[in-house]
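Lecture notes, part 5. Sequence design as translation. It can be helpful to think of inverse folding as translation between two languages: the language of shapes and the language of residues. The source text, in structure tokens, appears below.
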């Protein structure tokens, strides 16, 4: 079930909201839990059992860890919890990748499992792991109520595409949260703007990318047009989903962490990764990078720690070698900046460092979206005219003219300029404009959904 689908917008959500606000406070978590399981069941009828198993497993492990805190038994329970979570993630996401790699290297023909990837498994697995680790560290107390913990694990607003919400972020709200008209209004507004970003910008950019893939009249210009369009699509798709998740959370009284902070205005790759998918970056920092020693160790180990984090970041996004290459690309660039390039970037004019960042980011997303390593070679080569492709083609010019306005809107929309201009309005126009804009975005997005068939969420595959 998609946030931007008619079933979710006009059947599922109204019903959940009515039930949620009708029941007494003590029953609200159970409404969220049941509705979240129904939400996931619509997309993954069988794999809903994974959510239940994951909740039960980490609930039992955390209770045992807390009751044996400071002992070797607690550490064993933590390791057991992590192994179970990683085994679940590894089996469903990486088994066929490993089999394919072995077959290609050794020339064997081991059959793949063909097991479908459960939607959002990378997100909810990381959330449950962070919970048991935090209980072990003493950052939070173990949740004694299984229903409350299961609500956290299964909470549908952020279940399948983030942001990655840690238990410590919402522990208090799970037990005692307040609901206000202002909070609901802010949540609806955030959801509406996220939906507009996804449907009215990301989907249109996605259509352009699809036309590029289907074209037999490619050129260097068309490759670059595709690269820019995909860079816009993935930002507005993922940040739009995060906005919708944060908005829904606000309606139900939760304050989810921000996931994006205008990453395309960055002036270094280091800054880019402080602004892009912030909850994932924070997760790897706190649960992998710092436990390995971070930068408070020898230079060799520090470089190793960066390499490990970015290898895992690439693999987290997908079980293909182009994702490993994508993670390695950023790992290398971050090392280069930290060792040599960082000080130079600070001295350069802002527009120069910004061009540097965007060129690398665009190249990185071409790698990200390629069809394996062969696709990487083909797409990167196309950007630079490999194979003798022409600089310009009829299709490139046609689609450039057709999509010029949406591209300009996307480029301006990924900067703080619209927010800045809005902040300059006086308070009374905002009171009128906000509900009107929210309503218009939902209505217009609905019209696009009904009239179009292109409505994927890119991060559902992770």
């Amino acid at each position: 079930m998609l946030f931007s689908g008619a079933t979710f917008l006009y059947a599922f959500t109204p019903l959940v909201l009515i039930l949620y606000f009708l029941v007494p406070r003590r029953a609200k978590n159970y409404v969220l839990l049941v509705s979240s399981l129904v939400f996931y069941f619509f997309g993954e009828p069988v794999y809903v059992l994974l959510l239940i198993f994951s909740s039960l497993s980490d609930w039992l492990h955390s209770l045992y860890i807390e009751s044996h805190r400071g002992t070797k038994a607690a550490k064993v329970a933590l390791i057991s919890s992590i192994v179970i979570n990683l085994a679940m993630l590894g089996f469903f996401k990486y088994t066929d990748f490993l089999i394919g790699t072995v077959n290609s290297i050794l020339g064997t023909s081991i059959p793949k499992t063909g097991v479908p990837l459960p939607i959002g498994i990378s997100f909810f697995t990381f959330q449950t792991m962070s919970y048991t680790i935090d209980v072990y560290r003493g950052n939070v107390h173990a949740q004694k109520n299984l229903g409350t913990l299961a609500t956290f694990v299964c909470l549908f607003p952020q279940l399948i595409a983030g942001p990655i919400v840690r238990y410590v972020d919402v522990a208090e709200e799970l037990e005692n949260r307040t609901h206000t008209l202002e909070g609901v209004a802010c949540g609806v507004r955030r959801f509406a703007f996220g939906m507009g970003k996804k449907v009215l910008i990301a989907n249109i950019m996605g259509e352009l990318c699809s036309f590029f893939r289907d074209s037999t009249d490619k050129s260097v210009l068309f490759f670059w047009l595709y690269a820019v369009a995909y860079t816009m699509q993935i930002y507005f798709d993922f940040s739009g989903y995060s906005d919708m998740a944060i908005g829904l959370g606000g309606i139900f009284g939760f304050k989810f962490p921000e996931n994006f902070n205008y990453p395309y205005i960055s002036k270094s790759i280091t800054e880019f990764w402080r602004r892009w998918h912030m909850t994932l970056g924070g997760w790897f920092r706190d649960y992998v990078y710092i436990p390995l020693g971070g930068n408070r160790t020898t230079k060799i180990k520090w470089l190793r720690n960066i390499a490990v984090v970015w290898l895992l970041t690439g693999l987290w996004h997908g079980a293909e070698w182009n994702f490993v290459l994508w993670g390695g690309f950023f790992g290398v660039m971050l090392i280069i900046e930290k060792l040599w390039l960082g000080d130079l970037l600070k001295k350069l004019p802002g527009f120069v460092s910004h061009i540097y960042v965007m060129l690398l980011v665009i190249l990185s997303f071409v790698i990200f979206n390629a069809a394996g390593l062969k696709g990487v070679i083909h797409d990167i080569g196309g950007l630079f005219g490999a194979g003798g492709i022409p600089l310009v083609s009829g299709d490139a010019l046609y689609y450039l003219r057709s999509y010029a306005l949406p591209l300009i809107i996307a480029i301006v929309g990924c900067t703080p300029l619209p927010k800045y201009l809005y902040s300059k309005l006086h308070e009374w126009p905002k009171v009128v404009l906000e509900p009107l804009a929210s309503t218009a975005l939902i209505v217009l997005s609905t019209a696009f959904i009904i009239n179009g068939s292109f409505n994927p969420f890119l991060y559902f595959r992770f």
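The translated text above is only one of many valid answers, since several sequences can fold into similar shapes. Residues 127 and 165 are 6 Å apart (CA to CA).
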